[in-house]
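Look over this entry.
=====
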Amino acid sequence: MSNRDAQERIREICLSLPETTEKPFGGHTAPSFRVRDKLFVMTSEDSLSMTFKAGPGVQEALVAEAPERFFVPKYVGSKGWVGAHLNVDHDWDEMTELIEDSYRLVAPKRLVKLLEDQ
């Protein structure tokens, strides 16, 4: 899968979540996804990676288990965010779960309930 295809897949997953909007982060042009203006997924300008929010311990587990796929991103890694390389093969069921978990961490409870009820 090309990096652009991966980015399109990420877009599809994110925009399927309740009240998600696509809006670049800061001065960047790469797609980023928010719910109620809170970021939950960012893609890199070069389309080679994405970052997402994760719960306690998830970053360490993913990076230890699959360092060829996951990494600790600059700037937001210290806050538990996880980086995923997009130029490698991924299990997209797993990636969907990780994106949905990131969404759950920032979305209002009412929207999380809508997701659970889908």
Summary: Helices lie at 3-15, 58-65, 92-106, 109-117. The mean pLDDT is 92.
